[in-house]
Amino acid sequence: MGLAIFWFVAIAALWTGFFVLEGFDFGVGMLHRLVGRTDAERRVAINTIGPLWDGNEVWLIVAGAGMFAAFPIWYATMFSGFYLALVVLLVALIVRGVSFEYRGKRAGARWRGTWSWTLTLGSLVAPLLLGVALGDLLYGVPIDASQEYTGDLLDLLTPYGLYVGVTLVLLCAVHGAVFLALKSEDAVRERAERAARRIAVVAALAVLILAVWTQVAVDGRIVAVVLQVAAVLAVIAVPWLIRDGHAGRAFAMTTVAMAATVVTIFIDLYPRVMVSSTNAAYDLTIENASSASYTLKVMTIIVAVFLPLVLLYQGWSYYVFRRRIAATDLEPQGTDRPAPPPTGLSAPPTAPAAPAGD
Q: What is the 3 state secondary structure string of the chain?
């Protein structure tokens, strides 16, 4: 039971890490058309996360793999019941990843505009669906005595789950706006700061409503209440920090807000891993959904060896790509400009055209 609890905490940490890191990626994807009025400015926004977004998505893969290995019954019930929603999520993540790669392959405005829209939509749909899934875990979905999901797609669209999804989308948006304010220059930075101040107000209200709703719906724990209050206060502080030029501190506040919001879901979920709306006796718990002790021991050894290496590598990549990006740093794409003549030499004269006919 001890290792099972450890792995529940580890999976909660992986989901939290994913939303903290990939959250600002989602936010940048949602906002890059808003903060970028020209193609160069949109490229600035995209390039702030270009070296980071695929590494951040690894946290989602590891979270899913951890659920599969440590809690196979939880994984089977959730992934089979949420199958259609997860297919849509997968499509959103694929389209989003393809958008990063394909957008700059051609210079046409229509081509780039199309991939910009797919990047925006993919970045919005993914956190929305993941938020709905996390909210449903806590609020409850139809599960029978055989630990099987008995509902359909509409049963996943619970009001609480949908609201969790919307709240996480708003937190991703303000998280991304602050990240852009931290990593960009000139007009992109100014628009990102303005967006961060405006979205923060809406996000703080959304987190406050979620905290109250959670207490009414699931009778949350005191620790969760404290974290929810901390999340609200952290988002409220963002406009003042941005106004005073403290983008780094503002990013720390959005990180706290995102982490606290996700962690509270798992705190209120414990010792369950998935709530049954059919009957509380059918809830999936840490005890009845976990793997054998030997499996958990092997997984723990693997994590102890490789997780520090992953963290070191990711920390190194953030350090290497830490500087701000401006539009002047980017060369025009899709243009075949002739190379300038060598320094100090004049360009060779062009040969006269041949006469027509013979």
A: CHHHHHHHHHHHHHHHHHHHHHHHHHHHHHHHHHHCCCHHHHHHHHHHHCCCHHHHHHHHHHHHHHHHHHCHHHHHHHHHHCHHHHHHHHHHHHHHHHHHHHHHHCCCHHHHHHHHHHHHHHHHHHHHHHHHHHHHHHHCECECCCCCECCCHHHHCCHHHHHHHHHHHHHHHHHHHHHHHHHECHHHHHHHHHHHHHHHHHHHHHHHHHHHHHHHHHCCCHHHHHHHHHHHHHHHHHHHHHHCCCHHHHHHHHHHHHHHHHHHHHHHHCCEEECECCCHHHCEEHHHHCCCHHHHHHHHHHHHHHHHHHHHHHHHHHHHCCCCECHHHCCCCCCCCCCCCCCCCCCCCCCCCCCCCC
Residue 146 clears pLDDT 60, i.e. is over it? yes
Residue 171 confidence (pLDDT) above 70: yes
Counting residues of the chain whose pLDDT is more than 70, the rounded percentage is 92
Q: Residue 241: exposed, middle, or buried by beta-carbon count in 10 A (0-12, 13-18, 19+)? A: buried
CA distance 131 to 169: 8
CB 234 within 8 A of CB 211: no
Cβ contacts of residue 55 below 8 Å, gap of 6+? 314, 317
16 token code pair: 């939290």
Rounded percentage of the chain residues whose pLDDT exceeds 90: 68
Say what angle helices 2-35 and 39-49 make with each other, to 10 degrees. Answer: 170
The answer, yes or no, to whether residue 334 has pLDDT greater than 80, is no
- Does the structure show a pLDDT above 80 at 149? yes
pLDDT in tens, 218-236: 877 889 999 999 999 999 9
What is the band of 319 on the pLDDT scale with cuts at 50, 70, 90? confident
CB 265 within 8 A of CB 164: yes
